[in-house]
Every structure is written in C-alpha cells, then in structure tokens.
C-alpha cells in the first residue's frame, strides 16, 4: 500500500519553511539549473499551492536513492535509482486533496503529459484516487514498462480482468481500459489499464467512479486525486518527468 499523507498544520508549516539542500544525484534537464524546490528526503513534501502537494514518497521495502524537483504542481520530476528487485519502491506524485462529498461533485477531470523511460525500468505512470475515507483505491494506469502488474486478487479471485470500460469525456468517447479488482490487505483496489498506452491525455475521473458505482459500490466521499510514477526498479538511475498536469474538481 502506498504511503498516504494526512497533513497537519505543523507539518505543512515545517515543509514550507525548511530550506533543503539540492540532492547530489543528477536530475532531469527539465529541472533546469535551479528548480523552485528539490529534495532527496524519503517523505519530502512541498506545498505547491492551489491545494497541491508534491511528494517524494519512497515507501517500499529495499528502496534505493531518489531525488525530486519541482517548479510547480504541474511541472516536476524525479531521478530514481531503484534495485532490480520485486515490489514497488516509491510513488512520487502530485497530490490534490479534495475531501468533498461525492454526491455533490459534478466534474472530476484531469490532464497529464509525461516523459518516462522506454526501457530499463519497471514502472507505470498512474493516477491514484482515494474514496470513502481511504477505503477504496482507484488506480488509472496510462503507460507502463517492465515487470509490473495490477493488484488482481480478492474480489475476482483469479487475477483475471472483470470488465472493459471506455472513458467518456465531455466531448467524445475516450480510451478503453481493462479493469481489475483486488485488495492490498487494507483497502479495495480498482485498477484501470489503458489499452492504448499514452504519455499524455485527459481523463474523466468522475465517469470512472460512476462506472465503479454501477458495479455495486457506493462512494460517499472523494478524498484525494494523485498522479505520479509508481516505480519498482530503475537500476542505475533514470528520469521520470511530469511536463504538465492538472486536476479539476467542482
């Protein structure tokens, strides 16, 4: 299970005031010479404004070094050196806290553009959405490489997909996803894998959540919308860059 942060006022103040040294490892050229913020701390968190936080989030067992930089909530990245072993090591991400009643939401939509390694890594670019006080986790995989698989045990029991689903945007039909359901031992996990892997796009998240509700789930709250890179291995160090990203909730 990924580390989920519930921010206190004291923690936010500390993160905002602390001046952190630049990480010694190389970072992407997109960070330019001086990013607005950078860190190599395990759970480094930066208040990027407008309700967003950037998180380094190195949470998995056996994790290696990872440095993060950010110019804004929309433009950030990591240089990550994770060993070639199984298990997720980190989930650096842009975190947007919603904390609203689901029935009152009309639009939940997001756009993204990333640059990721084409080889040498086991990782995915993915949304991580939390509902019902973190009882439900919804992952939306947009691209992936290497030996990574969705959680697919529990409800369907045998690791097979339960459905296919076509995302409906406000103007047209979007990509088709293969849907898996499982449990990580703490919460239910729905995983949507894009059948046409992409490095950029727009996602109607509200429609995805409505689709899950059509399968018998009732969402009472939308807690968080996160987008980032779930990294299992990147031996020797690789760049994962978020060129642009935004979430719209109303």
Structure overview:
It is a single chain. Strand 4 (65-70) and strand 5 (76-81) form a beta hairpin. The protein has helices at residues 9-17, 205-213; strands spanning 37-39, 45-49, 52-55, 65-70, 76-81, 93-101, 108-115, 122-131, 136-145, 163-168, 173-183, 188-194, 200-204, 221-233, 238-249. It has a single domain (9-249), classed as Jelly Rolls (Sandwich), CATH 2.60.120.180. The protein contains two helices and 15 strands. It is globular. It is mostly beta strands. A nine-stranded mixed beta sheet has the order 2-3-6-14-8-9-12-11-10. It has a six-stranded antiparallel beta sheet with strand order 1-4-5-15-7-13. Belongs to the glycosyl hydrolase 12 (cellulase H) family. It comes from Mucilaginibacter frigoritolerans. InterPro entries: ConA-like_dom_sf, GH11/12, GH12. GO terms for molecular function: cellulase activity. Residues 1-21 form the signal peptide.
CATH top-level class: Mainly Beta
Tell me roughly what share of residues is in helical segments: under 10%
* Rg on CA atoms, Å: 17 Å
Structural class, from secondary structure content? mainly beta
Strand order, biggest sheet?
2-3-6-14-8-9-12-11-10
Low-confidence stretches: 7-26
The overall number of domains is 1
> In DSSP terms, counting alpha (H) and pi (I) runs of 4 or more, how many helices?
2
GO molecular function: cellulase activity
GO biological process, one term: polysaccharide catabolic process
Organism: Mucilaginibacter frigoritolerans
InterPro entries: ConA-like_dom_sf, GH11/12, GH12
